[in-house]
Amino acid sequence: MSKIKVDGVEITIFTQNDHDYISLTDMAKSQHENIIITKWLSLKNTIEYLGEWEAMYNPDFNYTDFGTIKNTAGGNNYVLSVKEWIEKTKAIGIRATAGRYGGTYAHKDIAFQFGMWMSPRFQLLLVKEFQRLKEEETKRLNSDWDYKRFLAKANYTIHTDSIKNYVIPKITDEERKKWVYSTEADLLNVALFGFTAAQWKQANPTLAKQNLNVRDLADAHELLVLSNLEGLNAILNQQGIESHNKLDLLRKAASQQLAALRASSYTLEKIQSPFNIEKKKLN
């Protein structure tokens, strides 16, 4: 067990088999509302995201009951409890424990999603304190961990797996399949930064020769939003949304989330970079 303090609230974290689980019960205390976890869990988008996560990491996931839950969700009166979710789907991403440190815990990927739903500012604080905890741990273990790499990879696997499962099967041309992954990645680049990877390289040849890309030079806010967009795009892929419609939805989400983070009174310490680059949209 470890503890961090976020916005005056003490949050418990436990690690099992190299996976970190964060107390949603503790996080919910910041909202002074007992049923906030149930509200979040009952949302259709939350259920779809959890389904993607479980499909990725849980070989015993009950897809049949998951499908029933997903199809039922969405109504104003729909309510899904943590106990019901775990019992019906055999989920492992969220856990309910009893005893001294009892409560509802979620894998860090899921906990960060919950934090973003509560408040972009709270999620940013949570990531910052989680980073600090990991830095202290790595100093003791003499290993390497940094939050920028963590944010860049947080939902990457969920994103690529959704492409493999929901986009690739629709394509019959073998040559086209080869560039689908890069096209999906560029969809996120355009939504967040306003340009593709190739356009960035063309505008920044010196940095490109150093094997750098726009994501390497993104700030903490941008990487946080990028991670969230990967999770959102995984859901859109599952729903079969066309690329031009996905871009509109992703752009809107990126704009809203960045604005919320930029307006926050709290920011991660600015990372000093040897590069001075002006990020601008390219036509």
Major β-sheet annotation: 5 strands, antiparallel
For the largest beta sheet, what order do the strands appear in spatially? 1-2-3-5-4
Count of discrete structural domains: 2
What is the chain-wise order of helices and strands?
Answer: EEEHHHHHEEHHHHHHHHHH
Question: What is the mean predicted local confidence, pLDDT?
Answer: 82
How many runs of DSSP E, i.e. beta strands?
5
Please state the overall shape, judged from the principal axes of the Cα atoms. Answer: globular
The first-to-last residue Cα distance is 50 Å
* Fraction of residues in H or I helices: 55-70%
- Number of helical stretches of at least 4 residues: 15
Oligomeric state, counting identical vs distinct chains: single chain
Q: What amount of the residues lies in strands?
A: 5-15%
Low-confidence parts lasting 5 or more residues at pLDDT below 50?
269-283
What radius of gyration results from the CA coordinates? 19 Å
SS content category: alpha+beta
Topology:
Blueprint: E1 2-6, E2 9-16, E3 19-23, H1 24-28, H2 36-41, H3 44-57, H4 63-72, H5 82-89, E4 94-97, E5 103-107, H6 108-118, H7 120-141, H8 147-153, H9 156-167, H10 174-178, H11 180-192, H12 197-203, H13 205-209, H14 220-239, H15 243-263
Antiparallel strand pairs: 1-2, 2-3, 3-5, 4-5
Describe the structure.
There is one protein chain. By secondary structure, this protein is α+β, with helices and mostly antiparallel strands. It folds into two domains: 2-122, no CATH class; 146-263, no CATH class. Helix content is 59%, strand content 10%. It has helices spanning 24-28, 36-41, 44-57, 63-72, 82-89, 108-118, 120-141, 147-153, 156-167, 174-178, 180-192, 197-203, 205-209, 220-239, 243-263; strands at residues 2-6, 9-16, 19-23, 94-97, 103-107. A five-stranded antiparallel sheet has the order 1-2-3-5-4. Strand 1 (2-6) and strand 2 form a beta hairpin. Helix 3 (44-57) runs antiparallel to helix 4, helix 8 (147-153) runs parallel beside helix 14 (220-239) and helix 11 packs across helix 15.
